[in-house]
Design brief:
This protein has eight helices and no strands. It is mostly helical and 172 residues long.
Length: 172
């Protein structure tokens, strides 16, 4: 009898998680298309997986909140509620759009995305400094110079960008 109860609870939990994931997928699709028309919305879900594994209850050690791990000040600037999952997703993608616009000089879409994701993690100013040191507006050049800007934190940012790529490829 206990095994039956265990399997029923496990089945119910998986249904609940599937419904929640579907709701998140709809939010990623909606806000991805809103801010990045013509781009695959999975590119904007991939950072949510990297940030929190799509866990809205996630809290970071520096005060980050929710699926996209928004800082409270950033959420206020964007006019979103970081404690609401859909609003948190909107805010993360909206912030990505602002960072993406900041990298307009990078003509290659993949390079712009990587620079955007690196900036989301390390801060736009830090990645801009790394690009200036490297002398090239590419993620690979910025990544090579990032340690001179952020020290040992650079390794985490580089892993973060690679993780987003892996997440994206895993969802396709």
């Amino acid at each position: 009898m206990r095994w039956l109860l265990f399997w029923l609870l496990l089945f119910w939990a998986s249904l609940s998680l599937s419904a929640q994931s579907l709701h998140y997928d709809l939010a990623f699709k909606h806000w991805g298309e809103y801010y990045f028309a013509g781009h695959d919305c999975l590119w904007w879900k991939a950072p949510g997986i990297a940030e929190s594994n799509l866990n809205q209850a996630a809290r970071g050690s520096r005060g980050e909140i929710g699926i996209m791990q928004l800082m409270p000040a950033t959420a206020r600037e964007l006019g979103v509620d970081p404690f609401d999952a859909e609003s948190n997703i909107q805010g993360g993608i909206q912030y990505d759009a602002a960072l993406y616009r900041a990298w307009a000089a990078a003509r290659d879409v993949g390079e712009r995305r990587d620079l955007t994701f690196g900036s989301y993690n390390a801060g736009l100013g830090n990645v801009q400094k790394a690009v200036a040191l490297a002398g090239a507006a590419s993620w690979s050049a910025a990544a090579a110079a990032l340690e001179r800007v952020t020290g040992r934190l650079a390794a985490g940012t580089i892993r973060y960008v690679l993780g987003i790529r892996r997440n994206y490829l895993g969802m396709r």
